[in-house]
Amino acid sequence: MTGKIKVAIAGIGNCASSLIQGCEFYKDVDASSKLVPGLMHNVIGGYKVSDIDFVAAFDVDKRKVGKPLNQAIYEKPNNTYEIVEKVPKWEDVIVQKGPVLDGVADHMAEYPEDVSFRVNESQKPVDATKVLKESGAEILMNYMPVGSEKATQYYAQAALDSGVAFLNCIPSFIVSDPEWEKKFKDKGIPCAGCDIKAEVGATITHRVLAKLFDDRGVKINGTYQLNVGGNTDFLNMARHDRLKYKRISKTDAVQSNLQVPLEADKVHIGPSDYVPWLRDRKICFCRIEGEKFGRAPVNLEFRLQVEDSANSAGCTIDGLRCLKLALDRGIGGALTSISAYIMKHPPQQYSDPEARKMVEEYIKGSRER
After folding, report:
1. Positions of the chain with pLDDT under 50
2. I want to staple 234 with a disulfide (CB 3.0 to 4.6 A). Which of 7, 229, 251, 359 is the partner?
3. Is 221 helix (H, G, I), strand (E, B) or coil?
């Protein structure tokens, strides 16, 4: 296939910034390129990274609303790793204000302006459905902060009302909720989600190692995953009332890889604290305790440090292209293959090798979704 993939983004935070910078960084990669660090696929179904075109953007922060998209991605409180110094494209795409709803946690006001969201209440929100239709967007990405249940549902409905595919990157369950997924399927609109698993992050590393224990006959007696970081995502999650679905998503991603899931009091997975000077770095501390042959103990600990938002972009760049293929092929509803491979809480969980195989089959056209 050829042509552009017209994308709208709700939430111009660090993850959106990394993705947009990455589109500039990888613009010259094509099918003839050898293995390129950071990309799982150079080309998907004929679509290159350079085919991704951003046509609309929504945010609520006064420092981003009204700015060209290629400038807004560098505005505070964004603090992600700089992939490129500047992005020459998308200066004509102006960030528009979406409804705040529950997209900004109340406690953000307690922190300095440099690190938290700031909203200009005098700015009126636009009608997202109208903007999506007028922009010609084909896919809407949801990159709202964790805990934005009402905001996520608003954008999901806007996607349905405008006939636009939906990529849900956060743990507010839309694609993995049967009622919402049915709405997309009934309208013949593809969707993928929920909650980006990351290219090589805490959850995928944890689940792979937990499955290794399980496959090799080791009984896991307990495990934890504690994460700290210094971006607005961690600041937003400093209030645990916004973490309900995040904890469910991360825990299910690990538990689903085990033959017999652990009892609730034997597993603890989730964000732990906000450390400002870490900026967009995320540090994971993980431990798995088990019993092997003859009940002899075996314990494993690892520490993983990543640039958090680039980790997300490495997966969404494939999610967008897989959704474009679904649009080309007239497929509606959840894409089980790419959802299982790049999301923590997909409609159906599969092992990572199986999910990867499914994605390759989907790209080739030998698998419907």
Report:
1. none
2. 229
3. strand
